[in-house]
Amino acid sequence: MHSWQSLFVCLAYLAAQVIMENHSQKMMLYHPAKKHELWKTLFFIFMMGGLLGCINVFLAMNSYSLQISFHLHFLFDALRAGIFEEIFFRMFLFALCLHITQSTYLNHTQVILSYFIMVLPHVLLHNSFSIDMMSVVILSLLFGLPFALMSRKINLLTAIGAHSFVDFIRFIMLGI
Description:
The chain is 75% helix and 0% strand.
């Protein structure tokens, strides 16, 4: 499974890069030339990731009890999920939005629709057993939208890091 997931994430990343190559609103993995980019990236990874991780554990405590533990594979599982989901559900789907519009600039409506496209499939994946509209809205606003905004407004590495940190906190606190 992991090797297939690696193949798909590499192909999705390459496809997104090709699609966004000449687009002015492309999503960048990281902007090394921007001043203070590293500090902004680290701040959002740990502050937003930590906050969202605590909210995630709090919400999950209705169904799970605390089982605090640490296993090294928690770190790798969190990174795998963060990398795959952010590249596939944010970067690749955003690149498809750019490709579908065939324009160099997205208008306001297209931007809003692109955020729906970057958020809803990811939320529905995590909520696949029962599609409860209230939980879809809550998960979209609490987790999907912040990750999509980080990937678009800061860089993809920020969203990957924050997403991985959320999962890492959940794994440590709940063992799931």
